[in-house]
Specification:
Blueprint lengths: L1 H11 L14 H13 L5 E5 L7 H16 L3 E5 L3 H7 L2 E6 L2 E7 H5 L6 E7 L6 H4 L4 E7 L2 E6 L5 H8 L6 E7 L3 H9 L9
Parallel strand pairs: 1-2
Antiparallel strand pairs: 3-4, 5-7, 5-8, 6-7
Length: 201
């Protein structure tokens, strides 16, 4: 067991900190220590709940790299996460759960084809608006409000300008507009009409 711990402390990058009190560890170091504890007995399956939550960018990249190495060496890594970027980088297979029900599952590339060619438009609003006129547009596949931001999935080939046009006199309420390539979060929005909770780092 001692040899195994030494091996894991070197693998995790904690070797130089092994003499420190755990209370002196940073959050990223504590997450690595959690991994060390979980891997001591060489599990065939590793279950993780939001493993990168609240980590800074460098610590997150480091943890992702170590999880990828684990996966390549034969350990099945199972994540529970709302972080679609983490899921796309780390997962081969994704299961969507909503209100306690399984609503969709599949390989990541397969799921992304469901929104391929479409766009997500994010409108930051200074005042609330009704979604009904947006959802009635043929160009809109799904729309949802989260806080002051409206998330809209456009159909393939649709122009974001069509969204602004339907807002008519309320367009001046848009304080910011962002258009981006869809991700797994947009697949979830299209399936449920609900946006995944934002991940705070």
């Amino acid at each position: 067991t001692r040899d195994r711990l030494d091996e894991l402390f070197r693998w995790s990058g904690l070797w130089d900190a092994r003499g420190q009190l755990v209370g002196e560890y940073s959050l990223g170091m504590k997450r690595k220590l959690n991994l060390v504890e979980a891997l001591v007995h060489r599990p065939s399956i590793l279950l993780l709940d939001e493993p990168t939550l609240a980590l800074d960018y460098r610590a997150e990249l480091d943890l992702i790299e170590r999880l990828q190495l684990l996966s390549l060496t034969g350990t099945a890594v199972v994540l529970a996460t709302n972080d679609v970027h983490l899921a796309e980088r780390l997962c081969d297979y994704v299961i969507f759960l909503h209100d306690g029900r399984l609503i969709r599952e599949g390989q990541v590339p397969e799921l992304l084809t469901e929104v391929a060619g479409s766009k997500e438009v994010q409108l930051q609003m200074s005042s609330p608006i009704s979604l009904e006129s947006l959802r009635a547009l043929a160009a809109v596949e799904a729309a949802n409000v989260e806080g002051d931001t409206v998330h809209i999935i456009l159909a393939r080939g649709a122009n974001p300008a069509q969204v602004l046009a339907v807002l008519n006199g309320t367009a001046d309420l848009v304080s910011n507009m962002r258009v981006r390539r869809p991700n797994l979060g947009d697949v979830f929005l299209k399936l449920t009409g609900v946006a995944l909770p934002a991940v705070h780092r």
